[in-house]
From TrEMBL:
Residues 2-114 form the CFEM domain. The chain crosses the membrane at residues 96-117, 129-151, 180-198, 210-231, 251-271, 292-317. It is found in: Membrane; Secreted. Residues 1-20 form the signal peptide. It comes from Coniochaeta ligniaria NRRL 30616. GO terms for molecular function: metal ion binding. Its main location: membrane. InterPro entries: Extracellular_membr_CFEM_dom, Rhodopsin_dom_fungi, SAT4-like. Residues 421-449 are annotated as: Disordered. The lineage of its organism: Eukaryota, Fungi, Dikarya, Ascomycota, Pezizomycotina. This is CFEM domain-containing protein. PANTHER family: PTH11-LIKE INTEGRAL MEMBRANE PROTEIN (AFU_ORTHOLOGUE AFUA_5G11245), SAT4 FAMILY MEMBRANE PROTEIN. It is a lipid-anchor; GPI-anchor; Multi-pass membrane protein. The keyword Nucleus does not apply.
């Protein structure tokens, strides 16, 4: 046993000299001891690096020994020494982390800017609750996209053994805030869409469903923000306990990630599918229905991104290569949030595009800008063919149209209230109540309204 220790010490000194000369990472004592003892019990020679690097059972034995006898940081140093000695190239996805965040952040901000322009200068709409909430969602989105830059600068996208110790702690610290920002932004986006539904669809049962979904989304954000904030006791354990030198009791990050992602997908589907029955009942052309449904299809893309991100969480909690395995989860997050904001802004952007592309986004009323983002409950009387002025029609009963409260008292006992279905093509016309009042019968009367 003493002779083996002496042999390891001599070989380690030699390896350290070679490593210094070739600019290779020096292995820690415990890791090098595992390598020597495992190689001596194999068919490979200590000097035959090709045999050691290509012998899968030997490498598995070395890994088990290093895991059992070395600290996490020593394990990473041993892994780095092995990859450099065996000339195994490391992964570098840092540019991907930055580019995805910048591109989709720019697209989200562009859609939001177009929405604001359409609201304030084109549609002349009153700035509503849904607009304020989407502003909050964008304010929260910006840090999510910006955080991707320091994450990549500190080494997110590199293999963990190629990242300095302190940088790993910084990455986990940034991720701690990134998770809460992500959850909050998603919830705010869905709440904004739901408040927009309240402006468009007047049905009482539908509004109850909307208020229920708003409450569920708010509860989702509050509950998971608190769980993420206090996932470890003490709180700094969320970013400092990774190397085993900081004691903390933490909730399983896998459990948190999977539950949050699954509930978010369910809420996404509920928000997207809720207005579809109402949309199919609208009195509009097939082309406009297709355009509206295509806008909602973007929402299904957001759900698709959520599902892909859920798949990337498989290795999230049990990873042994944090700075590499967190990349996929990170960039799908920076895609999902801006695309959700784009989806929330598309109806208002459509009203803007209708001014510049009237043939594609045509409206039924000249001068009115169709805007799914700028409409409210409206009433539209269906247009009928004009009758010739010299024609006479016989009617068994006369009906009078009363479009306001004027004259209501006069006909209160015989009035019948009729409310036309919502037509999104009617622009910004306010909701109106139409009353058909039965009067005495006339025959051979001319057309009258």
């Amino acid at each position: 046993m003493r002779s083996l220790a002496c042999l390891v010490a001599v070989l380690l000194a030699a390896v350290q000299l070679v490593a210094a000369a070739e600019n290779i990472t020096q292995p820690p004592d415990c890791g090098f001891k595992c390598i020597v003892t495992s190689v001596l019990s194999s068919n490979c020679s200590l000097l035959d690096t090709d045999c050691i690097c290509t012998n899968a059972p030997l490498n598995k034995e070395i890994t088990l020994c290093v895991t059992a006898n070395c600290t996490i940081w020593e394990q990473l140093q041993t892994k780095k020494y092995s990859t450099e000695t065996c000339h195994i190239p490391g992964n570098d996805r840092r540019p991907l982390v930055r580019i995805v965040a910048i591109v989709f952040g720019f697209l989200g901000l562009t859609a939001f800017a177009l929405r604001c322009f359409a609201r304030l200068y084109v549609a002349a709409q009153t700035w509503g609750v849904d607009d304020w909430i989407i502003c909050a969602a964008v304010v929260v989105m910006i840090p999510l996209q910006v955080i991707a830059i320091p994450l990549s600068q500190n080494g997110l996208g590199l293999d963990m053994w190629n990242v300095p110790h302190d940088n790993i702690t910084k990455i986990l610290y940034l991720y701690f805030w990134d998770e809460m920002v992500y959850v909050t932004s998603l919830s705010l986006t869905k709440v904004s869409i739901l408040f927009f539904y309240l402006k468009v669809f007047p049905g009482r049962g539908f509004r109850y469903c909307v208020y229920t979904l708003i409450a569920l989304n708010v509860c989702y954000a509050i509950v998971f923000d608190l769980l993420l904030a206090f996932q470890c006791n003490p709180i700094p354990g969320a970013w400092r306990s990774w190397d085993g030198t900081f004691e903390a009791k933490c909730i399983s990050i896998n459990l948190l990630g999977w539950s949050a992602a699954a509930i978010n997908i369910v809420l996404d589907l509920a928000v997207i599918t809720l207005p579809l029955p109402e949309l199919f009942r609208l009195s509009m052309s097939l082309k406009k229905k297709i355009q509206i449904i295509m806008m909602f299809a973007v929402g299904f893309f957001v759900t698709f991104v959520s599902i892909i991100r859920l798949r990337s969480l498989i290795a999230f909690g049990n990873t042994q290569n944090v700075t590499q395995d967190y990349v996929e989860t990170g960039y799908w997050s920076t895609i999902e949030v801006p695309v959700g904001i784009i989806c929330a802004c598309m109806p208002a952007v459509r009203s803007l595009f209708s001014l510049y592309f009237p043939k594609v986004f045509a409206t039924s009323r000249k001068g009115s800008s169709y805007g799914f983002g700028s409409v409210g409950p409206s009433l539209k009387l269906s247009s009928q063919p004009k009758l010739a002025s010299n024609k006479q029609i016989s009617v068994k009963q006369e009906w009078t149209v009363v479009s306001s409260d004027v004259g209501r008292e006069r006909y209160r006992s015989e009035e019948e209230l009729v409310r036309q279905p919502l037509d999104l093509d009617d622009g910004d016309a306010p909701a109106r109540r139409v009353t058909l009042v039965k009067g005495p019968a006339r025959s051979n009367s001319r057309d009258h309204v």
